[in-house]
Amino acid sequence: MKTILLSATCLLCLKIAAQLPPVDTSGEIHIRFDHNTEFAGFIFFIGSMADDALAPGAKMNNGQLKKDWFRYDIALTEKYHAFRDDADLKTAAGFMENLQSTDIFPLLMNVAPFPAAAMHNGISYRSIEEFAPGRDSLEAARQASIFLNALNSVFKKMSFEKYYVDAAAYYQQTLKEIRSALPPKGSIAAMEQFYGKRFTEYTIMPSLTIPSGMAFGLKLNRADGTAVFNLFGPFAVQQINRNTPISLGYNNPQHILELSVHEFGHSFANPVVAALPDSLILSSRSHFEPIREAMDKQGYTTWKSCVTEHFVRAGEVMIAERMGRTNAANDLLKNYTENRKFIYLPVIIEAIESALKEGKTYKDAVRIAAERL
Questions:
Q1: pLDDT of residue 19
Q2: Rounded CA separation 108/150 (Å)
Q3: What was the pLDDT predicted at 4?
Q4: What is d(CA 23, CA 226) in angstroms, rounded to the nearest whole number?
Q5: How far apart are the C-alpha atoms of 357 and 298, rounded to whole Å?
Q6: Tell me, what's a Pfam family for it (predicted)?
Q7: Angle 247-70-53 from CA coordinates, rounded to 5°
Q8: Residue range 282-292: mean pLDDT, rounded
Q9: What is the Cα 175 distance to its own chain's centre?
Q10: Which end of the chain is more exposed for a tag (fewer CB within 10 A), N or C?
Q11: CB atoms within 10 A of CB 39
Q12: CB of 303 within 8 A of CB of 229?
């Protein structure tokens, strides 16, 4: 009987997964929708953001009403409002509040679709260690299992498999918008040439449930090499009334290009910055004070995370210049330094450009730039 039940669950998972558009591998940048990511994105919103977004008159920093900015997630929240106080939902949302995207989504992409997600031998301790910091691998695996089981449970309670059927038209429209706005051919080559490194696969993952405005750079180590992903929610107000033309907020080629260079850039730049001696980072920590408040608001609460983000954004500017997008490079630099307060970008860019012209590697150039701070 147990075998029969497991087989039925697996068949249900395959049916659910098949309802999302298949992976598009026709270009140098692939397009993928992920079943588990879509569900987890919604659980995070309904469990951690819905109350604030639904507050009367609540606005984003730019004055946009949150009820409009998060329109798709709010519509889902209203549909599944009966589960907002569910214990499993709160457990899963609590994990996502306390962990980083790099801890959550690679795990979700590496297990079976809900409601049959489970730990397996192919999941390394390193990929789940933040589920139980400072504890052993058994405890980390136990905590990760609690997280997955909570999501499995609330998925079944919600009968969320029906969502993928109901939302099929929205995902097809998303795919249509993304296909019309993909980064131009040669974008990946420009990045690989700049960073002096390449990955096995580059994939963008648009999500209708990841809260609007959020984006993450992820990577998965596979047998054939390392694949990198740009996971993001909508970045414009959505029109989801089926009585009018549907628009889901993705048809912006410049934004997708810049977002892809930024999020893919994390996989290139982060390990290089992480390898710098702690003493080198600490030697310039006094530079954090003038921008600490602005960085805190953007989620960069330590000097090291701030330094890493400076290098990623510096890469964006320099790659745009190398692609012949001089105006875009200037606009990015102005926005990042004046509006986002990444005020050390000019120093970093000058140091890296000078080092690269001398024939040094990107790794060496980063160290030289860090010494200039």
A1: 79
A2: 13
A3: 37
A4: 17
A5: 33
A6: DUF4932
A7: 165
A8: 96
A9: 18
A10: N
A11: 27
A12: no
Angle, nearest 10°, between helix axes 253-274 and 187-195? 20
Structure tokens given for 101: 């995207």
Omega prior to 115 cis, within 30 of 0: yes
The alpha carbon torsion through 166, 172, 178, 179 (nearest 10 deg) reads 170
**Residue ranges per domain, the chain?**
34-166, 275-372
The shares of helix, strand and coil residues in the chain, as percent rounded to the nearest 5, are 60, 10, 30
- Amino acid at residue number 344: Y
Tell me the backbone φ, ψ of residue 30, rounded to 5 degrees.
Answer: -80, 160
- Across-strand partners of 230? 204, 217
DSSP 118: -
Q: Which residue's entry shows tokens 């910091």?
A: 133
Q: What is the Cα–Cα distance from 14 to 321, expressed in whole angstroms?
A: 44
Q: What percentage of the chain exceeds 90 in pLDDT?
A: 88
Model confidence band, residue 99 (pLDDT cutoffs 50, 70, 90): very high
Average pLDDT over every residue of 73-79: 97
**What was the pLDDT predicted at 339?**
94
Measured between alpha carbons, how far is 353 from 294 in angstroms, rounded to an integer? 27
Give the chain's length.
373
Position of tokens 């999020």? 263
- The 30-31 sheet, strands edge to edge: 30-31, 201-206, 225-232, 215-222
User: Is the separation of the CB atoms in 104 and 148 below 8 Å?
Assistant: no
Q: What is each CA distance from 67 to 73, 80, 243, 292, in whole angstroms?
A: 9, 16, 20, 30
Residue 237 contacts residue 64 (beta carbons within 8 Å): yes
Helix (H) or strand (E) holding 300: none
Lookup: tokens for 271: 């390990």
Q: Are 246 and 174 contacting, i.e. CB atoms less than 8 angstroms apart?
A: no
For residue 204, give the H/E element and its range. Answer: strand 201-206
pTM, 2 dp? 0.88
In sequence order, the β-bridge partners of residue 216 are 231
2, pLDDT greater than 50 = no
